[in-house]
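Sharing in case it's useful to others searching the archive later.

Someone asked me privately for the predicted structure of Enoyl reductase (ER) domain-containing protein, so I'm posting the question and my answer publicly. Question first, with the sequence:
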Amino acid sequence: MRGMRSLRGTSKAVSIFRPARLSSLRSIFTGCRAVMLPRFGGPEVLELRENVPVPNLNPNEVLVRAKAVSVNPLDCRIRAGYGRSVFQPHLPIIIGRDVSGEVAAVGNSVKSFRVGQEVFGALHPTALRGTYTDYGVLSEEELTEKPASVSHVEASAIPFAALTAWRALKSNARILEGQRVLVFGGGGAVGFAAIQIAVASGCHVTASCVGQTRERILAAGAEQAVDYTTEDIEMVVKGKFDAVLDTIGRPETERIGINFLRKGGNYMTLQGEAASLTDRYGFVIGLPLATSLLAKKKIQYQYSHGIDYWWSYMRADPEGLAEIQRLVGAGKLKIPVEKTFPITEVVAAHEAKEKKEIPGKVVLEL
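And my answer, the predicted structure tokens:
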């Protein structure tokens, strides 16, 4: 590597270079550490490998030197085989969706970021090169500047969950000030982000939860928090809602949520069946089957209850990410991190999540 030197030896990627707009990184970076998924299975299948190639940047892409990446439930599900119809042909892949770090290089058309700038963001659920790596690659629209008021660990826990909640509430339901919002699973990362986004939008929020998260949910601005392990939500919650976000996605929560909606309301579930049906039957049969099932439910609930039914997923949304950044900077949106692990202990981190030893957010530090 002409005129370059690496630091500390923990990553093979070069740490000192001339700031530049780069369409090719081959003369600047060689490889880096990355957590690879060579096959589907338990936490033990994850491998931390050295010298994983750093790909060339497309014109709209940013190379991020990761400082922290969070462990999402989706990461664990992908590791176990969820989405195999998408991922299996490309194994081994790097998993992970969230990242917080510093800009290391930018593509030729990137206008919003400069080398050295602190950023955070999240990849699309089907991205093949994830964020469990020293150097992540994200598009310009998948990143925003990290507020100085939060650490990289804190920032890495936010974007994927918050963007998932944002899409459901803002893109699907289009919530407005003064409306009532019900969140099933308010203690989880997506549910807790949804509560804060809805409160910031001027909505009246009710959430279901387990006992240990109740006070946190109320402190975030929810007007009512129902412990579903000790209370009957159908008995203690009164009135109708304009939007229901169901992060649990069971038949019972769907039934209850639909019945709580007023006409013209929106029910959003995070447990859509597109991926599971495609995994089971393949793209040719599974995708049309999922489309048909969703259309059937939409028609059914529009006819029986006068409401809109959605399978909601995270996707890159520059407007949403900008608003999330604003809320984080203002101290109105945070997702508590319960425990951190070094990236070298990624197997232990996934084992802890698998065994439900850590109910809250887990972050890997690099």
